[in-house]
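Exercise 7. Predict the structure of Alpha-ketoacid dehydrogenase subunit beta from Halobellus rarus.
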Amino acid sequence: MQATIVQAVNDALHTEMGRDDRVVVFGEDVAESGGVFRATDELLEEFGSKRVVDTPLSEIAIVGGAAGMAMYGYRPVAEIQFSGFLPPAFDQLVTNASRIRWRTRGELSAPMVVRMPYGAGVRALEHHSESLEGAYAHIPGLQVVVPSTPADTKGLLTAAIRDPDPVLFMEPKRIYRSIREEVPEGEHEVPIGEAAVRREGEDVTVVAWGSMMPPTLEAVEEGGVDAEVIDLRSISPMDTETVVESVKKTGRCVVAHEGPRTLGVGSEIVARINDEALMYLEAPIERVTGFDTPVPLLSMEDFYFPHPPRILDGIEAALAD
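Solution. The predicted structure, encoded as tokens:
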């Protein structure tokens, strides 16, 4: 079937709730309204109010409740309306969900998913546009997944729901409805921790994920560059091998991400390449990122978001040396 990213989210939830009675969905406005982006539309009608639940406006309660239910044997899928609302629940992720397996020496685990739309580009208000995957990837025991296509969205969300440990599932709302492609019907699973090569090339490796994939591919096409484009898909665990092998082939690399530059995921990618492929590099690795500021409001977002011209500038810089 043809579907957008937000429709793929909905399809994955319908499929997994139909397959496993332990899967429950809850969050702000997910039941009666079907979610602010309609990602949970019609779940209430199909699965009832005991499995699809509207919660109070309390991210601490949403994530903490999910952790408790997961330890008790359920497979909760908690929705945070926007990624900028998750910081109040940071303690629940760090203190409970991510480390309960370690704390109990494997006696308990927290098989739960926290879904949230992330990123800029939709002219949203403050606390609606953050891209903080780097901060959450720093938490041991928490997996961080960022899809960029409808098919991967369904497959990775399915894998996240079935995973025995907590997964933070970050959905690129900027491209929620701008990409439509064929999505497998029925059960479809994409392994967490495996990157995808979106375009093969010989001259430079370009690494991106989530909402950065369309502008990255556009930059490569517009520039006529023989670039290999890698969609990381999983921030933690990270598929270092795919990135390193590509860099060994091309000798050059550009990392593009929406989040702030300092201590961003790009820094970790650069470090891993330096650890494992330093002698293959023909030029310094370039980073094209957001800035070390809060995401500006409304039309000022255009100056923050790494658009194709900025990405192409980074590619050309890597090729120039």
